[in-house]
Amino acid sequence: MSNRTHRLEPHVYYYTFGPNEPALIINSGDTVVANTLDAGGFNEKMEPIPEEQKQRSEATTFREANPQVGPVYVTEALPGDTLAVTIQKIKLNRNYAWSRHRAHFGCLTGEVPGKKLFLNEPVPESKFDWQLNLERNTGILELKESQRERIEIPLHPFLGCIGVAPRFGRVETSMTPGEYGGNMDCIETKAGTTVYLPVWVHGAYLAFGDVHAAQGDGELCGVALETTAEVTVKIEVLKGKTCEWPRLEDDRHIMTAGSGRPLMDCVRIAQVELVKWLVDEYGFEKWEAFQVVSQAGTMRIGNVVDPNYTVVAKFPKKYLVT
Q1: Could you tell me the pTM of the whole model?
Q2: Could you give the count of Cα atoms lying within 13 Å of 217 in the half-sphere of its Cβ?
C-alpha cells in the first residue's frame, strides 16, 4: 500500500459529482491535502473563482454553488469496492463565515430537483456576517434587531460535501446528496471520522468541499456558516467490502447516511443500512439488530433543504464489544 502525501492544486472547481477530469491520480493509502472554497466560490482571502477555473459545458449551464476540489482518481478503486476516506484535519483558514436567507430557499419552501414549489411568502433576503475566533473556536454574530447585542456559538467544522461518481453513469449536482455521498450536510463528516463510500466507477472520482464552520441539524435556512479550510484526508480502497450507501465511523459510533425524499424514506434507508452493517460485520441476527437499534440508536438530520434530504442513523460502538 502506498503512503504518499499529495498537495491538490485545482485547475478547475466542479459543480458536479461524476467522472470529471481528475485533478489528481493517487494510490490506495495516499493522503491528499487541499484548500477548499466556500459555498459561494470564495477563497480564504474572499477572492472569487476566476472564470477560467469554473466548470463549464457547451451543452448546459451549472448552478455555481458548492464548488468541489478534485476529483481524485484512485487507481485501485473498482466497482464493488469501498472507498475509506479518513478526514484527518479540517483547519479553518479564514476568520469569517457568511450565511444568508434566500427568498425561496430553505425548509420553509418546497423543492424538487430542477423546480421550486413556493409554499410560503418569501423569506426576506438577508446576509449574516459571522466572525470566527479561531483561537477560541467560536463564531460570533452581532445582532442588529434583537434586544441582545451578540451571540457566540462553538464551532464544529465539517465537510458539507464529500462524494464519489454516482452509479449508472449519472452525474449529480453539488447541491444534491445520494448513495454516492454528495451534499449530505451532516455534521458527522468532521475530523476524526472515516467515511465509507461505495465505488461505482473505476477510480471512484472522490471530490469534496463546502466546509461549514458550524451548522444546526437540518440546515434549516439552507445556508450554514460558510467558510474555507485546509482539508487533509487519507484515502484507502477496501477490496471485497461493499456498501450501498455511505457509512461513517468515529471513535464513538458507527453511522449510516440515507438521502432521498420524503424524509421518512431517508430514515428507512439509514436504519436498514445500519441493521445490515450490524448483521454483516458484527454478528447480529437481523431482527435482534433491529431491536437493539430501536432501543440504543440515535438519529440526526443532515439537511431538509436540498433536492434530497439526509438522515444519519448512529449506533454506539460500546455495544459492539462482547
Answers
A1: 0.93
A2: 5
| CA 183 to the chain's CA centroid | 5
CA 18 from chain centre, in angstroms, equals: 15
Nearest to 31 by CA among 66, 6, 58: 6
Q: How far is the C-alpha of 155 from the C-alpha of 157, rounded, in Å?
A: 6
User: In this model, does residue 185 exceed pLDDT 80?
Assistant: yes
Burial class (CB in 10 A: 0-12, 13-18, 19+), 123: middle
Place of cell 461505482: 200
* 5-96+156-244 is classed CATH 2.60.120.580: yes
The owner of cell 484548500 is: 35
**Torsion sign, CA atoms 74, 80, 86, 92:** positive
The Cα-based distances of 278 to 6, 64, 271, 289, 315 in angstroms read 35, 39, 11, 7, 9
Which three cell numbers, joined as nine digits, stand for 97? 463565515
* 89 DSSP β-pair partners: 232
* Domain at 248-319: CATH code: 3.10.28.20
Note whether 186 and 310 are within 8 A (CB).
Answer: yes
Number of helical H runs and strand E runs in the chain = 2, 23
Residue pLDDT, tens place only, 79-90: 999 999 999 999
